[in-house]
Amino acid sequence: MTDTANAPELEPEQEPFWRTKTLDEMTPQEWESLCDGCGRCCLIKLIDDVTDDLHFTDVACRLFEEQTCKCRDYSNRGKRVPDCVILTPELVDRLTWMPSTCAYRMIYEGKDLAWWHPLVCGDPKMVHEAVISVRGRTISEDDVTEDKLPDRIVDWIE
Ligand code: SF4
Ligand code: SF4
To answer: Which pLDDT tens digit goes with each residue over 8-52?
Structure first.
């Protein structure tokens, strides 16, 4: 474990972009690089009729590739899956259903990126090794009937 409380302060020009820019100030490349590839946002979510609470299931969008956690048709995702929300700086404040670990949500909430984020640790595989990604833990929506979705609610995503 590192003791960040005693870490030397960096000069502003040395700070990485996600600490110095708001989401709407980022370049398209910076914006894209914020995604850690966890795949959590590609899981089907349910809203409790009574409490309005949001629950994640382990059921993934049919375009989700389980072993890589990538979209099979990223450039056409909006056309192929109308429910797929394409994040933009204008939308992010409304996306309270994003997982608490999502980099966009964390930056929006004024937090720093986590240690396992590729931009922090330099290793895109770390999101899988830290068991943040959903790799190997999902089932396709093609293999689950709608009435069984409540049985697929998981407690490992908040
Ligand atoms: S939850 Fe956020 S960080 Fe994870 S894949 Fe989705 S957009 Fe990227
Ligand atoms: S269309 Fe692609 S990016 Fe959108 S939810 Fe499905 S797998 Fe994820």
So the answer is: 454 556 799 999 999 999 999 999 999 999 999 999 999 999 999
For residue 59, list its beta bridge partners.
Answer: 139
Q: Which residues line ligand 1 (CB under 6 A)?
A: 35-41, 87, 98-99, 102-104
Distant-in-sequence, close-in-space partners of 119: CB < 8 Å, separation ≥ 6: 16, 18, 33, 34, 113
Output the six-digit token pair for 10.
């960096």
For residue 70, the ligand 2 atom closest to its alpha carbon is 7
Give me the residues paired with residue 46 across strands. 55
* Cβ contact 154:75 at 8 Å: no
Q: What is the pTM of this model?
A: 0.88
